[in-house]
Amino acid sequence: MQNQRLFNEIDQLQTEMVDTLMALIRLPAIGPENGGDGENQKAEKLIQILQDAGFDKIERYDAEDSRASSGKRPNIIAYCRGETDAKRFWIVTHLDVVPPGEEQMWTMSKPFEPQLKDNRVYGRGAEDNGQSLVASLFAVKAIKRLGLKPKRTVALAFVADEEQGSTWGVQHLIGKGLFKKDDLIVVPDGGGSDGGFIEVAEKSVLWFKICTFGKQVHASLPNTGLNAHRVGMQVALALDKMLHEKYPLKDEQFDVPWSTFEPTKKEKNVDAVNIIPGEDTVYFDCRILPRYNVDEVLSQIKRVTAEFEKETGAKITLELLQKQAAPETNDGNSHVAILLKKALWEARGLDAGVGGIGGGTCAAFFRKAGIPAVVWSTVDEVAHQPNEYSKVENMVNDAKVFAALVMS
Ligand SMILES: [Zn+2]
User: Fold this and answer.
1) Is 83 one of the catalytic residues?
2) Which pTM does this prediction carry?
3) CA 75, CA 179: separation in Å to the nearest integer?
4) pLDDT value at position 329?
5) How many angstroms separate the CA atoms of 142 and 139, rounded?
6) In 26-119, at which residue ranges do the beta strands (DSSP E only) sit?
């Protein structure tokens, strides 16, 4: 009964939810590593919205970062007091977004000028992580508007720096001792298009950059130089082959059941066709099943680069950009997973499954701290793509699930 009233209230708020999502998309929150100025402007807008929504308390935990013009990376916590404060319900979403990529690929909207078309909001950050951010906010807003009080205090955390390792984001908050072992933590930053999948485990993440240095010369005299591009490609291919051969095991509990090792970004080299490149840079994104030791994987990578150095005379450096080892244990029967399963059944009639994904969400840091966080949301998985969108229906339905969840 009470939940039905909440669901109706959330339906009433649909237009406001769309407007809020669009207002937030208009404020690009790109991290300094990706050429942006951080999340401060967006955070300030969000604080206004939170104040209007009737939260009991709003706190800021800024992490200092001189690379942002504000000098800080904002983390916001908005509280809705419950009958008890002993075991808090957290919903953690992130403020930052990835860069738009090639602008001409955006045909439905400009990246930061959102458009509502066919009940979808298009724009960078619409799905990742705007949809869930707004859904969690309006779940609490609906609770407040009906004058209800949840059993446990609800804390919404809006964090910085998720896309580049969370140093100034959730790790900063964990360092402040804000989370307790038996708190209930939901990270709605991943999931499937039907909302029927709860992620309780993730893979380890390993990102690295390989730079190869040879000798730049005229292309007609390659014998006088050392083609770094050729060596760089050979190294990348050798790594690709070695990693797939050495770490082939499958684990069906994960979506993509095997480890992935992908050469991704490639840095631009020379400007002319007739120059032998003296430098080559390639990046890898690896998502590794928890059964494998990441340090062991890393030592195999170093072995390959060292071999190529010896063979070719090129200098090859390896720079680690991210290394997050996932804990091997996962708990599909944690309290929060059970409550979320129940809320999904109640709000949406969904019998949800539990398992693992490719990883790299804030949940990894909670799990490492021994708190069994779950990742769940209803998304078409268009994050990081051009024409990223959020289905309005998903945003509204997920808000209902959050409302039912925190009232349970
Ligand atoms: Zn995200």
Assistant:
1) no
2) 0.82
3) 14
4) 62
5) 5
6) 57-60, 63-64, 72-73, 76-80, 84-94, 115-117
